[in-house]
Amino acid sequence: MSALHESPVLTVLSRLREDMAAARTHDPAARSNTEVFLAYSGLHAVWSYRIANRLWNAGLRLPARLLSQVTRFLTGIEIHPGASIGRRLFIDHGMGVVIGETAVLGNDVMLYHAVTLGGKSRHGHARGVRRHPFLDDGVTVGAGAKVLGPITIGAWSTIGSNAVVTKDAPPRSLLVGVPATIRPQTPETAESARGGTLEPEYYL
């Protein structure tokens, strides 16, 4: 069957399988699709967001917000239904993650727990104005990091644990520290940044 003619049910099922495959790729602790489907709150939050986002875009703003709040209560993850999220987002553990209304995430983004994609000022709240970050494809954000304001993080960048990012970054950046600065990215430094185990000089 052509992808152009897939039924809505098949499309939903293919997305579920895709999300579970992404989870198993990112998380070595995942042992089976059944475990991922039943026990991964990050996926449950993303699946609920997709329903809420459809409601939001259909003009059903209150039901969308109520669904997002129920999901927050159940998972500890708050995704505003107005956010724009690409495919294969994986939220590892997830507790404390917040994604703001005008945030935009590309494909293959990964967030660890306690990440905030938020605004940085009470000003500029006019309707239709972007207040939250844009994370391009493949960006990874380490545990506890705060990415604030209408900034752009280039594709395949890594944001270190507990970093506070308030400025744009080009593709394949490694952002660490408070406030975050750009460091050379290698496979070793990127992995260390995600786990919060960089050497102390990276936080100066």
From TrEMBL:
BP term (GO), one: cysteine biosynthetic process from serine
Pfam families found in the cross-reference section: Hexapep (PF00132)
Coiled-coil positions: none
Pathway note: Amino-acid biosynthesis; L-cysteine biosynthesis; L-cysteine from L-serine: step 1/2
Any Gene Ontology CC annotation: cytoplasm
Gene Ontology molecular functions: serine O-acetyltransferase activity
Entries under InterPro entries matching the protein: Hexapep, LbH_SAT, Ser_AcTrfase_N_sf, Ser_O-AcTrfase, Serine_acetyltransferase, Trimer_LpxA-like_sf
EC numbers: 2.3.1.30
PANTHER family: SERINE ACETYLTRANSFERASE (PTHR42811)
Alphabetical list of NCBIfam families matching this protein: cysE (TIGR01172), EPS_EpsC (NF041874)
Family of this protein: Belongs to the transferase hexapeptide repeat family.
The protein, known as: Serine acetyltransferase
Phylogenetic placement of the source organism: Bacteria, Bacillati, Actinomycetota, Actinomycetes, Micrococcales
Gene that this polypeptide is encoded by: cysE
